[in-house]
Amino acid sequence: MKLKKLSTALILATLPATGVFAAGMDRSGQSIAAFLQPGNYFEAGISVLDPNVSGQSTPLAPGHPSQSTGDMASDYYFPSAALKLQLTDNFSFGLLYDEPFGAEAGYTTPSINFTDATGGTSAEVKTENLTFLFGFQPNENWNFYAGPVVQTAKGNVSLRGAAYGGPTAFGSYDASMKKDTELGWIAGLAFQIPDIALKTSLTYRSEIKHELQATETLGYGAIDPATLNPTFTPGKTAVTTPQSVNLDFQTGIMADTVAFANVRWVNWKDFSIRPNYFGQVADAKGLVGANLVDYSDDQISANVGVGRKLTEKWAGNVSVGYDTGAGNPVTTLGPTEGYWNLGLGVQFSPAANYFIAGGVKYFWLGDATAKTAAVNNVGKFEDNDAWGYGLKIGYRF
Hints:
Layout: H1 7-13, E1 41-52, E2 55-57, E3 76-86, E4 91-98, E5 102-106, E6 115-116, E7 119-120, E8 122-136, E9 142-160, E10 172-193, E11 198-205, E12 208-212, E13 214-218, E14 221-222, H2 225-228, E15 237-241, E16 244-254, E17 257-266, E18 272-273, H3 276-284, E19 293-294, E20 299-309, E21 314-323, E22 330-331, E23 339-351, E24 354-365, E25 368-371, E26 379-381, E27 384-396
Parallel strand pairs: 22-25
Antiparallel strand pairs: 1-3, 1-27, 2-26, 3-4, 4-8, 5-8, 6-7, 8-9, 9-10, 10-11, 10-13, 11-16, 12-15, 13-14, 16-17, 17-20, 18-19, 20-21, 21-23, 23-24, 24-27, 25-26
């Protein structure tokens, strides 16, 4: 059961999760599988997520009805690309691009809790990573790698409705956080036995601390700290994207067939977004320590499956995934708690040195209670789902 006999299935088995809908704001899964491919290699891909997330608002005052929130989860896509160069028998270099964390939310259906006459609650968060990897392979079995990570982050948010206290509180709050660029790092090791198509890797990514310049408005006007409280001070918004660990494993189980698994941990419990003036206003209103976004638990997700070479040009896989979520109640900007998913993938290799692969996943999203800085139950979100689609090309040279 030599590696070359399994090459088509192996490439497919190392594809990252298609259309991730993970806990917190996790998106790409931050795979380094491309860097562990033999020889010189390039790939580019795109994932698209089509979620359906709706719920019922919780009455917060006498006369407030329970209303449908409508579908508040926006469709989105994120690209990825990777280049791996085997410089010598013992040294390799990799350059990986992905968009690891993000959010897209928008409440457009009129409801007392999440909209008002000026519009609805919405949010957009985007990060981009450029990972530089330097690998050392002392022999055919071991690979030790590390390198710097350049990350950008930016975001926008608007809060509307009774869930945020209405226009006299945070129900009239807007923030625009400009793009910030900071550095982090990555390190890991991999072990393989080519004759049995076994490959495993353990990869750590550091947290990355950002200081974003934010423009904040409250009451549909610019926040003037002098008129709110003489102790309010200007400053940037500190946001630290979370550290994570990925464990990947695959092995041949019979001719032309591999089993694969991925386990991922993300430290969402220590993550929060607390814009500068938002935090000071919250403290002044007695909501000491309140955050715009935070999570109570870390995320643990797992994906397992089987990939099989069907012909010399075709291969396929099937996988099952699970995500614990990042706690419940959870932010109104992403009101789901974990998921189960089922995925199918197919790959076509016109020649031995390149392929085109596609995949689809269906997600059963976990029920959740939505919270804000002041109220732990502003809505119930149940029986939601999502579809994920992915397309990738790979080339060896």
